[in-house]
UniProtKB/TrEMBL annotation:
Source taxonomy: Bacteria, Pseudomonadati, Verrucomicrobiota, Methylacidiphilae, Methylacidiphilales
Protein's UniProt keywords contain Mitochondrion: no
Cross-referenced Pfam families: Methyltransf_11
Listed GO MF terms: methyltransferase activity
Protein name: Methyltransferase domain-containing protein
Biological process terms in GO annotation: methylation
Residue ranges of every copy of the Methyltransferase type domain listed in the record: 66-160
Organism: Candidatus Methylacidiphilum infernorum
Protein's UniProt keywords contain Signal: no
Keywords: Methyltransferase, Transferase
Amino acid sequence: MKKIALFLAFLFFYTCTECRLYCQPKSYTFDSLQLAAEYDRLSDPQFNQGRELVSLLKIKRADRVLDIGCGTGRLAAYVAGITGKEGKVIGIDPSPFRIAIARRREKSNLLFKVAGTEELSLFEDNSFDVVYLNSVFHWIADRAQAMVEIYRILKPGGKLGIAMGAKHQDSLLVSILRQSAQSVLGYIPKEFDVNEYQREADEALELSRESGFKIKEIKTRHYVDLFRSGEECIRFYEASSGGSLLREFPDFQRKKILSQIEERLERLKTAKGIEIPHNILFLIDEKPK
């Protein structure tokens, strides 16, 4: 039932992501170019959140920047506009479908590679001014090793930015998920009670200190994302998760649960659409000089 817990974390963190990594290869077994393209169209929530992370990092012209879990590359392309031709932005993501779309955005100062945090050994010591993970941290399998590697590849004085689910969350989506599962299965899987978002936020702070970083800033912001329909909301989740949404259930149960989720979302629709509240934690670390 590990994938259920991962999906619960996805709801809390609103993953997936302008920038996302998958815990294991099987997590994007169901991904496709079509899903990646759909995510690219629907990824405004992560893109807008990412722009705030970039602002907090104070990225400058001529900076060398690494976007870990870059997805289809929207945020990396935005950052490349800030660094200018004197700088360099590299985006990595383990999904070849996301990278296929990202590569359409490549230019002289913007490059994309199919890779995850396990491949950070590709990069030399002290080679980046900024590294960031936008809605990505919770998908990394070995977070401790990833933080050590990020510290290694950052220059002294370089910054790491992490945007992730905050400890205190509105429970709307989780409530809908639990109600839908109860309706279809007749019970609520115990994994739905896992308080993943608080554990992951605490871990990010702890690993920052253990890796040698100096924590420069911690900020929480409340967001309200807007969807035109329950169907669009579900499509966003499906595309963001690389097609792995609720795949641990038999297909007939999965379809029923998704239908229940969509119906409950539709009941929340107003003249503006469906509002989904969530809180994001922004963590800015610095490698000591």
